[in-house]
Amino acid sequence: MHNPQLNKDGELTHLLSIEGLPQRILTQILDTAESFMEVSARDVKKVPLLRGKSVFNLFFENSTRTRTTFEIAAKRLSADVINLDINKSSASKGETLLDTIDNLCAMHANLFVVRHASSGAPFLIAEHLQRIGLDDVHVVNAGDGRHAHPTQGLLDMYTIRHYKKDFTQLRVAIVGDILHSRVARSDIHALTTLGVPEVRAIGPETLLPKHLDKLGVHVFHDMEEGLKDCDVVIMLRLQNERMNGALLPSAGEYFRHYGLTPQKLALARLDAIVMHPGPMNRGVEIHSAVADGPQAVILPQVTFGIAVRMAVMSIVAGN
Amino acid sequence: MSPLPNPLPDAEAQCRQLADLIRPYLHHRPALVGIFSGGAWIAERLKELLELPEEIGMIDVSFYRDDFAEKGLRPQVKPTAIPFDVEGRHLILVDDVLYTGRTTRAAINELFDYGRPASIELAVLADRGERELPVAPTYCVWDLALGDSDKLVLARQDDGQLAWRLENA
Fold first, then answer.
1. Does B79 touch chain A (CB under 8 A)?
2. Which overall architecture, per CATH, does domain A150-302 show?
3. Do A42 and B60 lie within an 8 Å CB cutoff?
4. Predicted ipTM?
5. What tens digit of pLDDT does each residue of A68-86 get?
6. Which of A299, B34, B55, B129 could be disulfide-bonded to B94 (CB atoms 3.0-4.6 Å)?
7. Residue B76 contacts A where some CB pair is shorter than 8 Å
8. Interchain contact, A49 vs B72, CB within 8 Å
């Protein structure tokens, strides 16, 4: 099958989704990110790789953490970064997505970081660029609808590898609103590709997509049962803004069943780590004592995210 | 320049010769920085032979290479590790083979992002000429000439010994 993320030599030229990427590319990104961690620890936090290149941050949907870390990552690679405030731009005057892209290409854009509420928008852009013959313009998906958030998936993998070293002995639980979560989808594909033997999904029936078992995921509706002996617990945000209709009785009810409290965490392995892609709803999906506790690695995730985004941008821009 | 000896010279003996060349100039308390991977191995040898107390630095120049636009990022990037303060220090950059000088240029650029060294010298086991930049070694054991398609590679064998290998592309 044609994979628009890879060039004819099988190298990564866009990052659109973890799905369909071979293990060697995921490992290459994680290894490269490790070298970029060292760059961020220096006095001069900059390398000249993308000097003279223009990176456009196209965020059609709100984001603070992801947009900021992409911006920092691009600047540490010496790229020029242009943040487009889409709400105030031509898109709100009726310009189509691809017309916007054509105009930015006419300004000699080299890389687009795209977040869009519609699943598939980054694919559409990548295919358009290929169609018009712009092989040296690259797309990185920063979250599209419910579909994928590949750099979050990769930074989660980086975090897991950093603390647990080896993927092939792990039990990983993803907890919460998996139905609406692009992070969960990217995590599941990445964990499976990297050889994690047991991936669990924990949540109420209304917030779990059907057919998770086809991805090799074990489904639990009882959180206490699902957390037992896990090495890694990935909490998801309860996505109020994506919820149409009454999927849940109340936030308080949700916390009682699926909020991560110190008592519930005690059922996982003693050395289990707790992750969260942010922003956190304290008292809804996670108790403050856990979020600020010794097993939480939520802030290191943010730091690793910069190195992972540096790795992704430098790899695609070079291919 | 003499013809290429057969068999190739003993790289371990050349490390000892390189240490002998550097030994008279240790009064500056130089710090060693090896370029991955061959230069890092040689720097480890020099640290032992010269009985230097300090940890050596290791540098991967992938983020500073001038051929990124043509070749992209190399798949195997190692983290650079400089375990001492570069500011004001006398540094000896160590590499296995000096050729075009482009790797040396990239390494010098990278070192300056850690601070302003007092000086940088260059120590290599082999110099195969054909420079494309104004770079010259301070300490060198072996001058040789090779064809464009030949590649001289320093390898570390299973027993940990360093040895030369000639590859033809």
1. yes
2. 3-Layer(aba) Sandwich (3.40)
3. no
4. 0.83
5. 999 999 999 999 999 987 7
6. B34
7. yes
8. no
pLDDT digits (tens, 9 = 90+) for A250-306: 888 889 999 999 999 999 999 999 999 999 999 999 999 999 999 999 999 999 999
Using a CB-CB distance cutoff of 8 angstroms, which residues of chain A are in contact with residue B69?
Answer: 318
Pairwise CB contact (< 8 Å): A318 & B68: yes
* A46: nearest CA partner in chain B: B113
A35–B78 C-beta distance less than 8 A: yes
How many interchain CB pairs under 8 A, A with B?
A: 47
- Up-side HSE of residue A39: CA atoms within 13 Å toward CB? 32
* Structure letter (DSSP) for residue B81: B
- The domains found in chain B, sorted by start residue, are 15-67+88-147 (3.40.50.2020)
Helix (H) or strand (E) holding B35: strand B31-35
The CATH architecture assigned to A23-149+304-318 reads 3-Layer(aba) Sandwich (3.40)
Residue B132 DSSP one-character state: S
Sheet with A54-59, strands from edge to edge, namely A80-85, A54-59, A111-116, A138-144
Is the minimum CB–CB distance between B80 and chain A shorter than 8 Å?
yes
Query: Is the Cβ of B109 closer than 8 Å to some Cβ of chain A?
Result: yes
Which residues in B lie closer than 8 A to residue A49 (C-beta atoms)? 63, 68, 73
Q: Specify the domain boundaries for CATH 3.40.50.1370 within chain A.
A: 23-149+304-318, 150-302
